[in-house]
Amino acid sequence: xxxxxxxxxxxxxxxxxxxxxxxxxxxxxxxxxxxxxxxxxxxxxxxxxxxxxxxxxxxxxxxxxxxxxxxxxxxxxxxxxxxxxxxxxxxxxxxxxxxxxxxxxxxxxxxxxxxxxxxxxxxxxxxxxxxxxxxxxxxxxxxxxxxxxxxxxxxxxxxxxxxxxxxxxxxxxxxxxxxxxxxxxxxxxxxxxxxxxxxxxxxxxxxxxxxxxxxxxxxxxxxxxxxxxxxxxxxxxxxxxxxxxxxxxxxxxxxxxxxxxxxxxxxxxxxxxxxxxxxxxxxxxxxxxxxxxxxxxxxxxxxxxxxxxxxxxxxxxxxxxxxxxxxxxxxxxxxxxxxxxxxxxxxxxxxxxxxxxxxxxxxxxxxxxxxxxxxxxxxxxxxxxxxxxxxxxxxxxxx
Amino acid sequence: xxxxxxxxxxxxxxxxxxxxxxxxxxxxxxxxxxxxxxxxxxxxxxxxxxxxxxxxxxxxxxxxxxxxxxxxxxxxxxxxxxxxxxxxxxxxxxxxxxxxxxxxxxxxxxxxxxxxxxxxxxxxxxxxxxxxxxxxxxxxxxxxxxxxxxxxxxxxxxxxxxxxxxxxxxxxxxxxxxxxxxxxxxxxxxxxxxxxxxxxxxxxxxxxxxxxxxxxxxxxxxxxxxxxxxxxxxxxxxxxxxxxxxxxxxxxxxxxxxxxxxxxxxxxxxxxxxxxxxxxxxxxxxxxxx
Lengths: 399, 290
Description:
The complex is a heterodimer.
Chain A: E1 4-13, H1 20-25, H2 30-37, E2 40-50, E3 55-59, H3 66-73, E4 81-86, E5 89-90, H4 96-105, E6 107-110, H5 122-126, H6 128-132, H7 137-150, H8 166-179, E7 184-188, H9 196-213, E8 216-221, H10 224-230, E9 233-238, E10 241-246, H11 248-253, H12 258-264, H13 269-272, H14 275-278, E11 284-286, H15 292-302, E12 306-310, E13 316-321, H16 322-330, E14 346-347, H17 353-356, E15 367-370, E16 376-380, H18 382-390
Parallel strand pairs in A: 3-8, 3-9, 6-7, 7-8, 11-12, 14-15
Antiparallel strand pairs in A: 1-2, 1-4, 4-5, 9-10, 12-13, 15-16
Chain B: H1 9-23, H2 25-48, H3 51-66, H4 68-83, H5 87-117, H6 119-134, H7 137-148, H8 152-176, H9 180-188, H10 193-222, H11 224-228, H12 235-244, H13 248-273, H14 276-289
Helix pairs in contact in B: 2-5, 2-8, 3-4, 3-14, 4-13, 5-6, 5-8, 5-10, 5-12, 6-8, 7-8, 8-10, 10-13, 12-13
């Protein structure tokens, strides 16, 4: 069961929004409807699911409808049509009192410009959600104190928000959202108002918090790098439409249309794309089964000058090169063991290209991709890395 | 288009006032009793406090709220008022201004909140406020006398009408100016409309509301002399006597006392809007270190 599910969600601004839905269904676009019918389309037929414990990022430029979309989830903006299921309950249909209960217990929100109460202390701000629920002063103080420590602001409880830096204020905003113990966090451009270094810190902090807390997070951003960094899955929005949903790699490797491709153009792929996405099939010699002639033939077939050697169970042993093999032949020897070079570089499937590039600096061998048990999973050549950065998928084998 | 005959606006109003005097005399008597009770009571209370005690209390309060400078000004100013034999008159005026401001606040605050909540109420109330502020006060002094006889009460009523608009306007403005994202945040945590108003909107509007209160107090002080014309007691009476008797000195002394009171009330209420805690802490430290 997904934690959050959105089905056919529409939000249209204007005097008679419902009448616009059929036009959108029959294919009219945002610009057309604004021009002819004076209605502004915020969200056009959005559907997606978010699983428990997932960070789902909605990415788009300003005006793409992402902030409207996230506000439909807790009905800060009333959707025009469609459903929003939270724990299998359609909250677009619940009463105002029930909605308040959902907002108090299930969904908490973090805002772009922090939205802290300037007349309250940091501690009182963190306790605000609990205050609204009429939790006793003593208990909410204690819980708020715990949350302040969680976000690394111990000792700042008595300060006023405007005495803190932007990054610290947003930590307060985060602590306030965490204090209600809601399972779902809505984060609306939560780090966009922070300067780049602080933003990076906060992203890392969020990821490490998420590791412990396992919340379901829906995160809005206009920054693709941010989306790629923190999102388990990413939805890209344009003109109120969701144009693509997928993991960071899926979006970079196979953009759904030109709009997404344009977006991903400037991304530092080397940081995002992992070994498993670019590696070639694990062609290797199995030591027990192959002799020296087998090695020569295989290198010839594949057009390469070195080959990894594994044992029967696919555990990586080392590498042999064509030079060594031919000198072995000249000496008239047969056994491969003597020439296996085990001084090779290995990476895991999750290593990014960024981490792989330096390995090629002092070595002419390809890099082996192995799992935790040293089983060979794939092979990366210099050319593979270049192709990966250039945004091309797997191609034919060979260096 | 020119009408051959003048529209009967004046006689219409006169008839309306007559009708109200005849039919609502019970109501007006009740209002009169309550108002004169509040004002006379306050005035009595203020005059039984020995002047020197009052001067010290006000100075200490000024120190706590605004610092040393205002405390010195309060001490010297009030001492001067006492020295000029205007103490009782000043206390009467303070009672009139205080009671008028309190009533203006009691009516104005809810009205301001209503205006901020409803655009329709905003549209209806705004021209009424314009009317109250710009219609020359002398014009409604006369009906006030019809309804409440001569004395302090019609003066207070005229003062309330004239002084109430700023508190209404600025309460409305203050609440409307609360940042949208803070309101959104409070909603997102499940606030009820009442919680939103009491925990977020009003607290954040306090500085603006205080500016409105300050203006209301200043406007009620400016009505002091005008209400003296229909028999209200206090400093206004001294000034009015000075004018009618061509006694420049007496008029100036009364006027000076009004100015001192105005400046004191202005500075003190201005500081109420900001954060008094810090100067309060400083004050306590000062007291303890002595």
